[in-house]
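Example 9 (inverse folding). The structure is encoded as follows.
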């Protein structure tokens, strides 16, 4: 990648220096997209954005990077989880997710050790509505409650790209955030160590 890319930089969270790879503040940008759209990225950095899997790979391929995930609820509460090590592979390897701890925060660690091998996301390939790379017998990205791209296993209990409220978003981050929790913002931030 040789051309510059506009990104949202967070200079306040956990001492700053973060680049947003995912951010959602409302439902104005749909996340039920194709493989190519997730590859290239879409949306607007200041509001709703997926940074692009090629860009995420470039940001995380050469050095250890940390991942900070946050969900802000309508009552103003922000829950977060921070993972020490995060990267994704390139497109040839289907943007495979590499995630390691220790993980700390208030959301609860649900991506590495979710309590079931069928829910573990580290080591999973990226899936979109037109590329089924998950381990479920149906494409998880096409189910009504999970329409959107993600690193699905046998679907998931952690998923930040689902249809936005008032649609039913069953398990954004189970059990801390469930269908009854009104989300007003999500963010996935990356910082090189």
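The amino acid assigned to each position is listed next.
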């Amino acid at each position: 990648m040789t051309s510059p890319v506009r990104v949202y930089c967070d200079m306040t969270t956990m001492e700053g220096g973060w680049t947003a790879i995912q951010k959602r503040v409302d439902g104005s940008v749909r996340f039920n997209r194709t493989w190519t759209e997730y590859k290239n990225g879409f949306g607007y950095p200041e509001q709703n954005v997926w940074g692009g899997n090629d860009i995420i790979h470039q940001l995380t391929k050469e050095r250890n990077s940390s991942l900070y995930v946050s969900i802000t609820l309508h009552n103003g509460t922000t829950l977060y989880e921070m993972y020490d090590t995060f990267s994704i592979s390139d497109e040839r390897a289907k943007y495979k997710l590499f995630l390691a701890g220790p993980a700390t925060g208030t959301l609860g660690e649900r991506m590495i050790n979710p309590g079931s091998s069928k829910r573990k996301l580290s080591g999973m390939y990226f899936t979109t509505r037109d590329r089924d790379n998950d381990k479920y017998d149906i494409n998880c990205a096409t189910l009504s409650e999970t329409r959107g791209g993600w690193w699905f296993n046998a679907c998931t209990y952690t998923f930040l790209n689902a249809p936005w409220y008032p649609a039913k978003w069953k398990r954004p981050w189970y059990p801390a955030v469930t269908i009854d929790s009104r989300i007003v913002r999500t963010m996935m931030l990356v910082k090189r160590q």
